Structures are given as C-alpha cells and as structure tokens.
Amino acid sequence: MNLIEMVKAAGVVGAGGAGFPTHVKLNTNVEYFIVNAAECEPLIETDKYLCRTFADRIIRTIPQIAEAIGASKKVIALKGAYEKEIAALKVAIREQNSDVEIFELGYFYPAGDEQTLIQQVTGRCVPERGLPSDVGCVVDNVGTVLNIADALEGKAVTEKYLSVVGEVEHPIQLRVPIGTPVLECVKAAHPTVSDFALIMGGPMMGKQLTEQAVMEQAVVTKTTGNILVLPKDHYLFRKASLPMETVRKQTKSACLQCKMCTELCPRYLIGHQIHPNLMMRGLWLEPTITDNEEYLRMYGEAANCCSCGVCEMFACPMGLSPRKVNDYFKAEFRKRGIQVPKNPEAHAREFVQERKTPTNRLVARLNLSQYYGKHPKTCEELTVDTVFIPFSQHIGRPAVAVKQAGETVAKGELIAAAAEGLSANIHSSVDGVIEEITDKGARITCRKE
Ligand code: SF4
Ligand code: SF4
Predict the structure, then answer these.
(1) Is-above-0.85 flag for pTM?
(2) pLDDT exceeds 90 at position 243
(3) Among 26, 253, 259, 403, which one is least packed by beta carbons within 10 Å?
(4) Quick one: how far is CA 200 from the chain centroid?
C-alpha cells in the first residue's frame, strides 16, 4: 500500500477541525505542505502538548507526507510565543538534518484558521469558499500528522489527546479511547462548579453543550481536541442563546455603522467580498424581500463568513451579533435554494498585518481571563468501561457497520467501513464486546484484564 492507501485504511480524518477524510485531501499535487500547530483558539493545550512531546516523530513524518503530494516546501506553523514547542521542534530538525521550516505566527486569533494561516505563511489568498489546493497548498493539523505516522505503522485511529480546561481544579491533558463519554473526561479534571455547561473545542467556534442529557450522550470523537468547562450562566452561553428576533431588534436600534466588524473581519482582510456592517444595515429590510435575485444582491456576501466570531466577540463596540446574522442568511440561502457566486480572485488588503485580533485581549473580552495562562502539567491516560463509537465522525457519508452485536473485537479492528464517496473507516478503540450496533454507531463494553 502507498501512503494514501495506508491513511485511508487507518481511518485518518482532520484531527483539528471538521474531520475531512485525509486520504481525499492528500490525493493532490501541490507546492506547500503546511502543518498547522497554531492552536487557533485561546485556552486549548493539545497542539502544544503534541509538539513538545512528539517533535521527533512530527518532523520525521512531514517529509513522507510532502513526498506523497509532491510538495517541495514543508512548513510547520505555530505561534512565536510557543517557545518550548519551537525549541523541541528545532532540536528534532537539527538532529534529523531535516529541511522542514518553522514559521512563527503572531499571537492573534484566528492564526490557525486554514485560510489565514496560508496567507501568513505563503502570502497567497485562498479564493472565496475555495480550497488550500487552489493556491498550491495542503494544510494538516499536527494531530493529523501523528495519526498519519501511526497509519504508516499499520495502526488505526483509536485514541485522542485532548485538554480539559476552564472551571476545573487544574487544566489536564488526557489520552483517551475514541468513544469515551465526555463527562468522564470532565470528571477527571474535577470541575469546581456543579452547574456547568461545556464547549467542545475553543470558546469562539466550539460546539456548546448546555443540556444535561446532551452532555451525558456526548463522546470523544476523532476531532475532539479540547473540552472547555464553564458555569452555565457564563457570558458565552448567554450570548449564543440570544434568539434571532432579539438580535434583529438590537441591530435595528443599536448598530452605529462604525464598520469595526468589517475592518477586523479575517475574511475581509484576506480580500474576500464580505462587509458584515452592510449585512447589519440591511437586516431590517429582510422580511420584506421575497425575490431571490434581490435577496442575493442584498445579502449574498454573508456566504463568505467563516463564523470565526471576531466581529461579535471582539470588534463590535455595541455588543451586537454580525456572526449570528450571517449564519442566519447562510441558512436562508440553503432554504431558498440560492447559489451564491464566488469571486475566484482574492488579494490581501494592505493592512492585513496590522489589523489582527490579539489573543490576550480577546480572552479578556470573552470573560475568560481567570482561566488563562494555566497549563496541564502531565498527560493522564483514561480508561473506561464502555465506549460509544459514532460512525459519522467526519465530513461525508457515515461509515457502514461490518460487525454485529455480540461479536468480540480487538482495539484497532475495523467495525465500520468507509461508504462510497467521501467517508472514512471506523475502528474499535478498545478490546471488548459489541453490546449494540446501529447505523449511528457501536456501543462496546471493554474487556477486563
Ligand atoms: S464571523 Fe464575523 S469576523 Fe468572522 S468571518 Fe464572519 S463576518 Fe467576518
Ligand atoms: S461593529 Fe457593531 S455597531 Fe459597528 S457596524 Fe458592526 S455591528 Fe454595527
């Protein structure tokens, strides 16, 4: 098997984001292979841990991946402030006499956004709603690189490294089998409040879990990198729960048209057509527009929003919600069947370097300062009695079960095969017995030693 076939067999998907199947992403020919170790959002610790701990393996694997995609330039990008991690990577580069380059990013959000990262590293701008390969790049998260290293040794993706931070006794780094209940991870970090809610991922773009029943059902997947524990009444949950009608009223009465949301928008900065202030200005008219052409003309730019949240969590002096408004328009495009054309040319605006959102100031705005600057000391391994392994942990079609209830499985054994088209293999993360298996996933009881 070649590298791409081994990656496919191991079920590798993007470890840092939406879970795009990696074998599909690597089926290309580009100039740059960029490893994303920027740890985009505040408070997350996992990429840093991986860089410190597995620097040698990361640097050894990058050229193998680069060769498979024909990339002559190999770069690992992380924030310049990550001194220990950069030092570890430099030692590995020196010892291996490697030609992998380190790119030091500024300390800003969203440095790890794929399109922002590419602009910073190469000076190239990915077109609106385009792919990194449109500008000769492939970007993989550092966790994905390590999963590829395992795949090259014949090991499937069965476990995850993740941090648990926030309202806990001390932030922890965990290594857990995929399918581990999220609340088991939270318990291991000893929450300091009983009435908490969770954000899976970072505070800006992570998925909020606020209902007890939802938290109880949530499990660690191939894309989980962080769990943020916060009191249920935290500002972030209150802000996200604002109904659209309230947002509409607030916008109508309080938007100053100061344009700060546009001036700081990361997509605007890399030259995409997006002006959130204009979406806010036109919002009050929206219920009256029935013609799709007119709707597209008025609000089509919202399709270029990546929902990073800079506008509403940092830029807006009035505490308004341009991101929520753009998300609303995007949903309306889908409902109304409106296709928004893309501008294939993008050129960064001349002030792209000056208008970055500083991470430490963002943390203060998010009311997270009390949790900032605390780091896990060690990595703990968590064992559990039961796992539930979902068959859809990736973008594309769910994998299809190849086992039945009652069967014994070993860690790393295939339990659901990639479906036709965009999909990924799923393997058992433990030695155990399948208690239940449906088209949604498999519940496996771990075998006791
Ligand atoms: S969420 Fe706001 S800042 Fe981010 S891309 Fe969308 S409009 Fe721009
Ligand atoms: S930053 Fe806020 S007040 Fe200013 S234009 Fe944007 S939404 Fe309106």
Answers:
(1) yes
(2) yes
(3) 253
(4) 10
Residue with the smallest CA separation from ligand 1 atom 5 is 305
Residue owning tokens 């088991």: 184
CA of 261 to the centre of ligand 2 (A): 6
Please give the distance, rounded to the nearest whole angstrom, from the Cα atom of residue 441 to the centre of ligand 1: 34
Mean pLDDT, residues 390-404 taken together = 97
pLDDT at 340 over 80: yes
Beta carbons of 310 and 264 less than 8 angstroms apart: yes
Whether pLDDT at 449 is above 90: no
Residue with CA nearest ligand 2 atom 5 = 257
- Residue having the nearest C-alpha atom to atom 2 of ligand 1: 311
Residues having CB closer than 6 A to ligand 2 are: 255-261, 277, 280, 315-316, 318, 320, 322
**Ligand 2 atom with the shortest distance to the CA of 311:** 1
Report the share of the chain in percent with pLDDT over 70.
100
| Nearest ligand atom owner, CA of 276 | 1
Q: How confident is the model at residue 17 (pLDDT cuts 50, 70, 90)?
A: confident
Q: What average pLDDT score do residues 377-385 get? A: 92
Pocket test of ligand 1: the residue of 310, 313, 352 to mutate, having most ligand atoms within 8 Å of its CB, is 310
Asked if residue 448 has pLDDT above 80, the reply is no
Hey, which of 323, 325, 327, 352 would you mutate to test ligand 1's pocket, going by the most ligand atoms within 8 Å of its Cβ?
323
pLDDT confidence of 377, banded at 50, 70, 90? confident
- For tokens 């990577």, what's the residue? 89
Mean per-residue pLDDT over the chain, rounded: 96
Cα–Cα distance between 412 and 434 in angstroms, integer? 14
Tens-place pLDDT, residues 254-311:
999 999 999 999 999 999 999 999 999 999 999 999 999 999 999 999 999 999 999 9
Residue partners of 26: CB distance under 8 A and separation at least 6: 3, 4, 7, 65, 68, 69, 138
